[in-house]
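Subject: Interface between my chains keeps coming out wrong

I've been trying for a while to get a sensible model of this assembly. When I model each chain on its own everything looks fine, but I need the whole thing in one frame so I can look at the contacts. Pasting all components below, labels as-is. Any help appreciated, I'm running out of ideas.
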Amino acid sequence: MSGPGQSAPSARQTEALVQAAKAAAPAPLVASLPANPARAPAAEADSPSLQCRQAIVGTQTVFLCVEDANPLAPYLAAVPGVLIAALGFYVVHRLSVRRQRRDEQFKMVQATRELVTAVTDEAGEAWMSKRGRGEKAQLLIQRVGRIGRAAQMLRLRDARFDVGVQVTTFRQAVTNDVESGTVSSSRRAEIMVAGADLDEAIYRAFIGIYG
Amino acid sequence: MALQTFRTRDGDCAVKPVLSIARNFSVHPGPRFIKQGPWSGEKFRKLLVDRLAQHDVIVVDLDGTRGYGSSFLDEAFGGLVRECILTADEVLRRIEIRSDEDPTYKAEALEAIRKAEPKH
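Reply #2:
Try treating it as a single job with all components included. I did that and got this:
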């Protein structure tokens, strides 16, 4: 704590200086003794929170330095840990939500694909037989309607789920003039192709979104 | 037939009549022609023509039914052009199709109108 060119103060003088510095400092200030007293003025210039005063004790010139202690310092140390924990919680939450959405979407996709398969088979049979065509036609129209609504529900959940073209093609193949009673093997083949296309489009849309 | 209030481009309020197939026709739309069964596209087209005689613009609401066959949609909307009741442009101007539950019905009806050619 002595100035350049001066001999070091005795232990009793140092203790007295520290007590004087504590008494002189405002409440939040803590007295500190620089490791190298010769650098005290330089340290004052470097750190705005470090305030030094020059004093003469006996024949010695000393610098009394006090550092302004930040009251948030103990909490600031915990900030990185809290941020990492919050980020971890957010990531886990997002992954959980995504998994839940994927599961719900998967169930809807499975149900829709099963319906497509069932309607494809029924429509194929219906187009190969005149018997009871009127009742079958109405049932097929309703079931194709359910496929269209299910596809729209999937699209509302995710706009990338766009299979509207395939739904329209499938509906036209299944229901267009089904009530006419015409037996057509070529129509049956058309229904099989349109059903397979729709099934594949639904599957590919799901895989494209969720991998 | 219900009425729907809407705002025009000029900012004025106006009213459009809404023809709901589920409420004003049937929740089970049927085949193409009347002779093929009840609630056919041909029968609906006649109802539509009747309403078009009373109103310049009509909203046709396709929601609320169990589903439509392609032949019903083709006969109901494309039939207007085929039977020389209206031109395709007039149909597109005077009929506003709404189908929120399954937009593919609207797309199919519009396609039927555009592709239809008048009978000679």
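Reply #3:
Confirming on my end. The helical segments of chain B are 21-24, 41-54, 70-82, 88-94, 103-115.
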